[in-house]
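Dear Dr. K.,

Following up on our conversation at the group meeting, I've run the structure prediction for DUF421 domain-containing protein from Paenibacillus solani. I'm pasting the input sequence below exactly as I used it, so you can double-check it against your construct before we proceed with anything downstream. Let me know if the numbering doesn't match what you have in your notebook.
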Amino acid sequence: MEMYMQLGVKLIVSFFGLWIVTFVTGRKTLSQLTPLDFLASLALSEIVGNTLYDKDVTIMHLIFALALWTTLSYLFEKATTYFVKFGYLAEGRAVMLIDNGKLNQKMLDKYDIEYKQLLSMLRHQNIFSLTEVKYAILETDGSMSVMRKPEFEPPSKQDLGLEATPDAFTVTVIDKGRLLKESMLGKQINLEEIRSMAREQGYDSLDDIAYAEYADDGKLHIFSVKDVQK
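The predicted structure tokens came back this morning:
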């Protein structure tokens, strides 16, 4: 009877402990998990699973393990948020596989993506030809984001007899005052040009910029620190 009581208490502690871990470290759907998040989830499940049925592990041991894991996860999440470069290093960066209609063979080779794999990923986006794609980006969670060429956007503007006007594609260039040379692998930015464009818009110091994105039409869109709600 005592064993069942101890197991029951451990289950209750584990249930609320996992809920607290999820609440503290941030809510993410499975599709938003990075490889690091996924491995951390597996490790946490192993910690809880092994302690439930081990008689030598007390409830206090379980609480200590969950508390320490929550603290480490929280500090790591905060570090990736406040230290931008560390965040990109820890969580990875999006990868440009198709840039303005051209295959980025360097990135395809680097990440061992064959053409048949690329086409398979595109078919999941209801795209059956590379000729339809203007930009294709491999996200940090392994999914793919795609921008079609204007003439292939549904419904087709060619079918409607309308002029096809291209959509602007943007890349993050400033994050919390930090200038990013390559926030997306395979898409490099001229940093001096970004600094010059920021000065033209009245930002002599990058510290006044919370976020900025550079569009392929040559425009820099800036969100100042004052524009961001706190």
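Two things stood out to me. Residues 8 and 187 are 53 Å apart (CA to CA). The first helix runs from residue 2 to 25.

Best regards,
J.T.
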